[in-house]
Amino acid sequence: MGHEIEKRFPANAKDYQLFEEVGEGVSATVYRALCIPLNEEVAIKVLDLERCNNDLDDIKREVQTMRIINHPNVVQAYCSFPAGQKLWIVMPYMSGGSCLHIMKYAHPEGFEEPVIATVLYEVLKALIYLHSEGHIHRDVKAGNILIDASGAVKLADFGVAASMFDTGDRQRARNTFVGTPCWMAPEVMQQLHGYDFKADIWSFGITALELSHGHAPFSKYPPMKVLLMTLQNAPPGLDYERDEKFSKSFKKMVATCLVKDPKKRPSSEKLLKHPFFKHAHSNDYLARAILDGLPPLADRFKTLKGREEEILLQSRTEEDKEQLSQSQYIRGISAWNFNLEELKSQASLIQEETPASEELEVNGTDYGVETFDTIPSEHQNASDEKTGIANAVASRKEELQDLQEFGGLLATTFPIHPLKALEGFFDVYEDDNKDARQNRPVAFNSDSESLIPMQQISHEVGSESKKSDAENLEGTTFSAKYLNVPERQKILSGSLLSDHALLPARITALPERDELHQKHHSERYCSGPLLCCQRDSPKQSAASVHDESSDSRVVQRKGRFKVTSSDTGNKEIALRRGRDNDQRLVREKGKIGVATSANLACGFAASATLDASTVLPTLQFILRQNVIQREQIVKLLKLVEQVSGHHGEPSDLGGGEFSQPSLGVIKERELQSYILQLQQQVDHLAEELQIIKSKNAKLERKLHSFLKEREIGEQESLEEEGVSSGASHKQTEPIL
Ligand SMILES: Nc1ncnc2c1ncn2[C@@H]1O[C@H](COP(=O)(O)OP(=O)(O)OP(=O)(O)O)[C@@H](O)[C@H]1O
């Protein structure tokens, strides 16, 4: 089927006519469009690769997953191709839009139970399919549940999906922090033991609550607070009194999904057997119940955006951060940004006012109640105070130094020209920008590697950028506020694709809106990768709109971490959501580059040329890198914990000062996580070995039966020959 689709849908931008914008995510804008040769309405997701903060791995994975999946409840990609600096993904047009948009537009208090049962039933079928195929969706939420005109429900957005069959580095990437905080399972947040498809079951439970109330639990809180609440509160659920309009079986179904221990959550298959889903209705019912009377999707989308902008304007004057978060939620972008100062205040908010309203969301019956106020006794040991402070200072210094060293270690590369890096991956690679490329200082030869070391690039590019790259490589520093950096730097939880990046492609001209976005760009809340970036002044940000080279400020990227530099000489490091924080060294034609693991998975030729002597150092390099990355992540997480005032280790310093776990504890944790990592690697190798062994056994059996068959065949033909020669012999005998 996939092949037929690819054949049917042309992979060329000129065969499509873009109409209105119908959706916007962190990384993409979605348009209604017409496939001209087929006269078929489609949706086109347009990603700006040059400006996209997403790893190319993520994009490739998204496209790859969308292409191979084939299920009525999952949005499949018809085809994908680059168009200019953008990547277009052509897919079925779901004219009802997302459940989130329908809800925000017409059902702000949530849907009725039969509607919820119907939607969730279909989503669960999608999850059963995905899980059976080895995929974890990792971003199940109302915003990713799409409905078409006939009421058919499909799960969309594979931007952060992972494969259970990933091995090695990719598999370890499942220890990463991916998803959207409100819907994110605790084990995904903790990153301790990795996670599996049960993470989707948690998100499914949260989505059930979202559809019931019109918003996800904790959605009005900033991300850091959401993380802490999810980890420390009892799981949210339907309240037996407050949610009395909902049936007991619904409440129970939600409660089975929202169990903190993933092992105790049911599989998607098992969940489908829950009595609640007996209340599911047909697609027709759904269309009648929630789509009848709604204006066209593009109009609804415009209205919702308008509302968001109003809130955005208000929040600018009132500094109402929660409203900002809510405004993004309304539009369907679970996108937030926050700075470390804010984290501190958020953390204090949590301590000061654990909200009664959230307690109501707790399924008080089944779960032990853990609260933020509960301080383990070891935290209260006053004698640790002095040591704690000394350790805090020493450790902070050490961390700062380590982080700086880490910055130096980031002399790894990122595809400077994403389209080129993706060449051969999409259905068609249009090198339609050759001229521009020739004039541009990029580090690609026509047939060369897509990935070249940054140092090398800095030699090859023009002198301007040579200088700045060299500077950046030399003097990379961290710039988080509490590490003595300017306040204007912010952390974004999100892969932010700035709106203005897509302005030229926009069909719907909304000058006021665009102006607004330029004006407030720096304050938009974005979801996706955690990203610490420069908070540009409106002037700077406007300049960056037109400055094609602005991306060149990114001088180093390494998984979650991105080191950038600005013209003013400020250096910054970006902390990005590590959808895939692994990188691999690729040797090809004598050059060394660092490629993300999916590059290899996608069959880049480089890996094929490796020989045994290059593999070993490469693997050692990867291992070292991973260990370093992991350590840095753990450190940064700890720093965030300190800022928030919450950590699980001794020394509550009181007096509003940061608490600081002792150096020994930190080292111990690091070692533990390292051991864990090694264990996982060993497990994996064992798994892989097992798979190879069973493949071998299969092949041996096949070979054996083949040889046997051949032997039998030979024997038979010999016998036949013997018989016939015997017969002829017999015949000739009398003659002789
Ligand atoms: N096939 C489609 N038909 C109609 N609308 C769509 C379609 N695909 C996506 N949309 C709309 O566009 C929005 C953004 O799309 P999508 O979620 O794929 O982008 P994204 O950048 O990956 O989002 P996210 O912020 O969740 O990472 C969706 O929430 C939905 O409202």
Automatic annotation (TrEMBL):
Domain Protein kinase span(s) in chain numbering: 16-277
Record flagged with keyword Oxidoreductase: no
Region of interest: Disordered: 713-736
Record's keyword terms, sorted: ATP-binding, Kinase, Nucleotide-binding, Transferase
Taxonomic superkingdom: Eukaryota
Any Pfam family: Pkinase
Chain sites annotated for binding ATP: 45
GO MF annotation terms: ATP binding; protein kinase activity; protein serine/threonine kinase activator activity
Keyword DNA-binding: no
Family: Belongs to the protein kinase superfamily. STE Ser/Thr protein kinase family. STE20 subfamily.
Protein name: CBL-interacting protein kinase 12
UniProt source species: Platanthera zijinensis
